[in-house]
Amino acid sequence: MLKYLIKGGTLIDPSQELLGVYDLLIEGDRISRVEEDIFEPEAEIIDARGLIVAPGFVDLHVHLRDPGQTYKEDILSGSKAAVAGGFTTVVCMPNTDPPIDSPHVAEYVISKANCYGLCRVLPAGTITKGRKGREISDFWALKEAGCVAFTDDGSPVMDSDVMRKALELSAQLGVPVMDHCEDNSLATGDLNEGEVSALTGILPRPPEAEDVLNARDCILSLYTGGHVHLQHLTTSLGVDIVRYFKEKGANVTCEVNPYHLLFTEEEVLRSGANARVNPPLRKEEDIKALRGAISDGTIDCVATDHAPHAQFEKGRVDAAMPGMIGLQTALPIMLRLVSEEVLSLSRMIELMSVNPARILGIEGGTLREGAPADIVLFDIKKEWVLNEETNFSRSKNTPLWGKKLTGKVIYTIKGGRIVYKDN
Ligand SMILES: [Zn+2]
Ligand SMILES: [Zn+2]
Predict the structure, then answer these.
(1) Distance from Cα 183 to the centre of ligand 1, integer Å
(2) Is there a catalytic annotation at residue 305?
(3) 66, 190, 211, 305: which is the annotated catalytic residue?
(4) Residue 260 to residues 19, 214, 257, 282, 318: CA-CA distances in angstroms?
């Protein structure tokens, strides 16, 4: 049996309130011991002195574009980017071509990912057939095929009765329904409504487009008991809405994207179409509210919404496909917030590993003895640049392209195997 002994690292595992210098022994695909000083002559040693050792990151929102748009990304390139970013599990969105609205597409994704064996790729199935917003997909069959969530991401579910029925099913199945909350009748423009949209003459996409659907979903969750997970929260009022309905006892969780914690709407003046995302980058006061909400627990997790697009799809801002890549930049952005004392390292790991695993109800997100050996080792000080040599995604649409970043994954271990090693 393959054994690895991770020696002398600083272990941080909020799932068992563990923080300190410990050794960790992996036997086969599981974590077998966590102690102060382990001696195991048969194990290969990984020197972790000076590194943080944490449960592998779990990203419950990525776009791998496979099947159908593999010129942007595919399951192999996306898996490579994921493990280089410290992620051992990702949930891929079903807005593929064809969409993941039937078991055979879900099975294709799972078997292709297993074939490479780099990262655990768990598909989300669509809420509605063909993502058309009308007829609910066969949740039972999709769950049976391995789907861990349901979402029409990229589009909202506009019909409230369809959403209510989806949440009733969610309550029966114990599977979260994730919604891309932007009301189509309001979300017609490309940039946040404000000075930058006025200055550039680009049509606005006001924050209330997001807030009205966030509130509706929380209300439907409260009445049905179904688990709604709000994707990419960006507004200050959205934070208040979630806080209010959590206090009421609604079964609601939510995520924030690292880039919504970092960039304001003004980024589009510097980065052009690479800063064009849905929902759009907002204002300083929204960032402040989101940052408060990740430290006080209102926001449950960080998700990248890794959204690769080809260069030709990122020309003019008002004609560009929305989204940024994000799997390899999530850790450096979050570490920047740690250095600015917005949150602790321990809370960061809760948001990136422990909580997303809990929301999905999957194994992982912990370094407990007996758990799968899904582990990330990272250096909080190492500087690097995202460029042609370091990028694993097939796309490069991010304002951080070519920029110096601080914080680097050194090893990613999935199921007891090293799936990424720096240099
Ligand atoms: Zn979305
Ligand atoms: Zn998305």
Answers:
(1) 12
(2) yes
(3) 305
(4) 29, 17, 5, 8, 19
Domain count, the chain: 2
Give yes or no: residues 375 and 244 share one domain: no
Residues 386 and 352 in one domain: no
**What pLDDT was estimated at residue 277?**
98
Rounded distance from Cα 96 to ligand 2 centre (Å): 11
The DSSP symbol for 324 reads B
Instruction: Tell me, in angstroms, the distance from the centre of ligand 2 to residue 150's CA.
Output: 13
Q: Does a structural domain hold residue 121?
A: yes
In terms of residue numbers, what domain contains 380?
Answer: 3-53+371-421
| CATH code, domain carrying 109 | 3.20.20.140
| 145-184 pLDDT, tens digit each | 999 999 999 999 999 999 999 999 999 999 999 999 999 9
Q: Does residue 409 lie in a domain region? A: yes
Query: Same domain for 136 and 282?
Result: yes
Instruction: Find how far residue 12's CA is from the centre of its chain.
Output: 20
Assess if residue 366 is contained within a domain: no
Expressed in angstroms and rounded, the spacing between residue 269 Cα and the centre of ligand 1 is 23
What pLDDT is stored for residue 251 in this prediction?
A: 98
Of 95, 128, 129, which Cα lies nearest the Cα of 109? 95
Question: Same structural domain for residues 110 and 17?
Answer: no
Q: 97: which 2 tokens?
A: 């071509």
> How far apart (Å, rounded) are the C-alpha atoms in residues 373 and 75?
22
**Ligand number, closest to the Cα atom of 60:** 2
Model confidence at 367, in pLDDT bands (50, 70, 90)?
Answer: very high
Residues flanking ion ligand 1, Cβ below 5 Å: 153, 180
CATH of the domain at 379: 2.30.40.10
